[in-house]
Amino acid sequence: MDATTVLAEINGNLAAVGYGLAAIGPAIGVGIVVGKTIEGVARQPELAGRLQVLMWIGIAFTEALAFVGIAVGFIPFP
């Protein structure tokens, strides 16, 4: 096993760990968005439709962070 192979394995393992850590943020964000939407619907039931649309938009933006996190794992480092 040469140094290049070992370095590639280390980078691969770090990318997996990094993505695991990067997925924590969006998971917490989605939990907050859904929780606040439920709170809002409990306070103003007549706005449930509008709040649900805003919730889905918020979830989409939050999950975009997870996609960025997985893409960073594929960036080759010299």
UniProtKB/TrEMBL annotation:
Residues 15-75 form the V-ATPase proteolipid subunit C-like domain. The chain crosses the membrane at residues 12-34, 54-77. Keywords: ATP synthesis, Cell membrane, CF(0), Hydrogen ion transport, Ion transport, Lipid-binding, Membrane, Transmembrane, Transmembrane helix, Transport. The record marks E63 as: Reversibly protonated during proton transport. It is found in: Cell membrane; Membrane. Pfam families: ATP-synt_C. PROSITE patterns: ATPASE_C. It is a multi-pass membrane protein. Its main location: membrane. It comes from the Bacteria. InterPro entries: ATP_synth_csu_bac/chlpt (IPR005953), ATP_synth_F0_csu (IPR000454), ATP_synth_F0_csu_DDCD_BS (IPR020537), ATP_synth_F0_csu_sf (IPR038662), ATPase_proteolipid_c-like_dom (IPR002379), F/V-ATP_Csub_sf (IPR035921). Belongs to the ATPase C chain family. HAMAP family: ATP_synth_c_bact. Key component of the F(0) channel; it plays a direct role in translocation across the membrane. A homomeric c-ring of between 10-14 subunits forms the central stalk rotor element with the F(1) delta and epsilon subunits. F(1)F(0) ATP synthase produces ATP from ADP in the presence of a proton or sodium gradient. F-type ATPases consist of two structural domains, F(1) containing the extramembraneous catalytic core and F(0) containing the membrane proton channel, linked together by a central stalk and a peripheral stalk. During catalysis, ATP synthesis in the catalytic domain of F(1) is coupled via a rotary mechanism of the central stalk subunits to proton translocation. This is ATP synthase subunit c.
